[in-house]
Amino acid sequence: MLRHVFALAALTLGCSSLPEPEYDLGEAPQNFLGFPALSHENMVNAQATFEPEYAEIFDTDLVKRRGVIPVRLQIGLRGEGAEHRNILLNPDQWEITLYLQDGTALRPVDPEELAEMLGKKSAPKVRENKFRTGFLGTEGTSGFVYFQLSPKDEFTVRDRSLIHEKGDTSRGVDLYHSLVGFNVTIDDELHPFYVGIKPQ
Q1: Percent of the chain residues topping a pLDDT of 70
Q2: Which of 3, 10, 56, 131 has the most C-beta neighbours closer than 10 Å?
Q3: Does the pTM exceed 0.85?
Q4: DSSP string, the chain
């Protein structure tokens, strides 16, 4: 899957804990930046950003406290006739994933599960700012998607950089060299999209 992603890049240039996905330390970091969103008939426009001041938005440091990376996602329609098509982000099929620079795939965290783990001050912020799936319109949709760093003790986060340590191997990756991948349903057909994370 990941090699397919990077091939595309080359061509286009109450819970007490969260579930822990299983993955291995990825390949050597890929050298790309600002990967543009793929589009179907130039109808779907997407942008992903990592905002260093996220702790102020959520009244807590999600990365340090819970090992969760918040990414702001903006998706909308553009182009003639786009508003007349059935274009949907189906929560059961969009399979959103964050691909780090070294190929590590991070799974999403359900906002409700994350909110239940946080205090009364931060939980409403997580719910209020979450990205809402559904039918897309020309006005666009914006919100945060949350990704789990797991196992949390393998990662050290410094600003926009992640240090991933596993066994005797240590590798640094840059969030601004990472990809967000997801599926868009257009007229009942799934289309994969990949967009690079940009600085705020």
Answers
A1: 76
A2: 131
A3: no
A4: -HHHHHHHHHHH---SS---------SSPP----PPPP-STT-EEEEEEE-TTHHHHHTS-HHHHH-EEEEEEEEEE-STTGGGS-EEE-TTT---EEE-TTS-EE-B--HHHHHHHS-TTTHHHHHHHB---EE--TT-EEEEEEEE-SSGGGEEEETTEEEEEETTEEEEEEGGG-EEEEEEEETTEEEEEEEEEEE-
C-alpha 97: how far from its chain's center?
Answer: 6
Which burial class, exposed, middle or buried, applies to 143 when counting CB atoms under 10 A from its CB (0-12, 13-18, 19+)?
middle
| DSSP bridge pairs for 142 | 74
